[in-house]
Amino acid sequence: MIVGINGRFLTKPYTGIGQYTRHLFSHLAADNPHDKFIFAVPDLFAISDETDGIGGKNVEIVVLPEKFFGFAGMRKTYWEQVQVPRLFKKRGVDIAHFPYPSNPWLGFKKPVVVTVHDTIPWTMAAYRKSFLTRLYQNRAKKAVKKADAVVTVSNSSKKEIVKVCGVKEGLVHVINNAPGSAFAATEKGDGVSHKEILQSYGIDPEKPYFLYIGGYDERKNVRSLMEVYMREIAPNFEVNFVLAGAKSLNNPLYGSFDDLTKAINGSSLRTYRGNMVVTGYLAEKDLPALYQSSFAFLTFSNREGFNLPLAEAAAAHTVIIASDLPVHWEIAGDAPIFCPPDDKKQLSTLMKKVIADKAFYKKQKQKMKDYVSPFSWEKSARQLMELYKKII
User: Fold this and answer.
1) Alpha-carbon span 93 to 204, nearest angstrom
2) Mean per-residue pLDDT for 347-369?
3) Could you read off the pLDDT of 21-65 as tens digits, one per residue?
4) In the chain, helix, strand, coil percent, each to 5?
5) H-helix or E-strand containing 347?
6) Torsions phi, psi of 16, nearest 5?
7) What single DSSP character describes residue 245?
8) Sheet containing 337-339: which strands, arranged edge to edge?
9) CA 62/CA 239 separation, integer angstroms
10) Which domains does the chain have, with CATH numbers?
């Protein structure tokens, strides 16, 4: 079997789709050495060390530079809709997989699988402000119905895809995301090594900290986390707030990261007992140390397809305060502390409670210690290959 894969997001390894593409298909290729996997990428040089694992004798990465005409969106669309299908046709692929909604709008002669992580681009106004964005997203939504199979990452997303895209329920297959191999060993490692890792990111290992890892686009609701921390926690408690990552695009959707930078550079935090620390992007091998050393992990998003950082925090047995979303229950059951995503007052109360109420915090630590992650990329890769064999 020859599988063609749109590997565009291998060039953006810190994004959710980048992690999905790397982890899922590296395991798929490793587990199926007699099949061939062809990845189309627009720029080989943009692939970082975080993409190691996409390799082997049965893997070919084809650099397919974008045509230099028009504006960036036009070049991206032409690459997805013309250049990639042409490459797959030329290489005689038996099946084509598009890890985000970019499958051919006019169809493709061989079986097509498209992964739809969520319906956010079609249902949240903040992601549909420009005419060209709406045009692209509407065409992408229609194309989802042309695929031979739709893969998604949670049962919550499956329900939304059936409703929003008008796809038959039987064509949508749930294949979950999973924490990376760094989380295979969940017991806390050597304290000295953890200390060195924290210091390398500018984190004071002697001071407890809340942790946020994830994106900074509008739906992640990071502004609310910052507001509550700066107003209620930093002035009163010697607990820091570590925020990892950065904005992946330079547009207003990621304005909360700019707000964060301004707040840290401002004078008000300097007189507080707690402070905010921005680490930038993290090496994946360092993630368990940051989760396991944190006081609690915070995620307050109002929409998610899966929320990989939540699954990572749970796998690391970290105390979690999470927004009360169906998908968060799907990932971690009742182990986290849940809070309505629009209730900053309740968020403040819960953050103070985990700091001040030692018995409550101890109980939550035990709940997280008892959590057993049901997710693995090995399992997801097996499920995907089974799907390929059914539709080929």
Assistant:
1) 51
2) 96
3) 999 999 999 999 999 999 999 987 544 444 446 778 999 999 999
4) 50, 15, 35
5) helix 344-356
6) -60, -45
7) B
8) 276-280, 240-244, 209-213, 296-299, 320-323, 337-339
9) 48
10) 2-178+376-391 (3.40.50.2000), 181-369 (3.40.50.2000)
Residues in the chain: 392
pLDDT band at 187 (very low <50, low <70, confident <90, very high): very low
Q: What are phi and psi of 149, to 5 degrees?
A: -155, 145
**Distance from C-alpha of 196 to C-alpha of 205, rounded to nearest angstrom:** 8
**Residue 201 to residue 244: CA distance in whole angstroms:** 9
pLDDT of residue 46: 47
Q: Which residues pair with 83 in a beta bridge?
A: none
The residues that bridge with 240 in the sheet, in sequence order, are 209
Residue 189: pLDDT band by 50, 70, 90 thresholds? very low
- CA dihedral (86, 170, 24, 386) in degrees, to 10, reads -90
pTM (2 d.p.): 0.91
In this structure, is the dihedral angle defined by the CA atoms of residues 372, 18, 37 and 4, taken in order, positive or negative? Answer: positive
Longest dimension (CA), the chain: 64
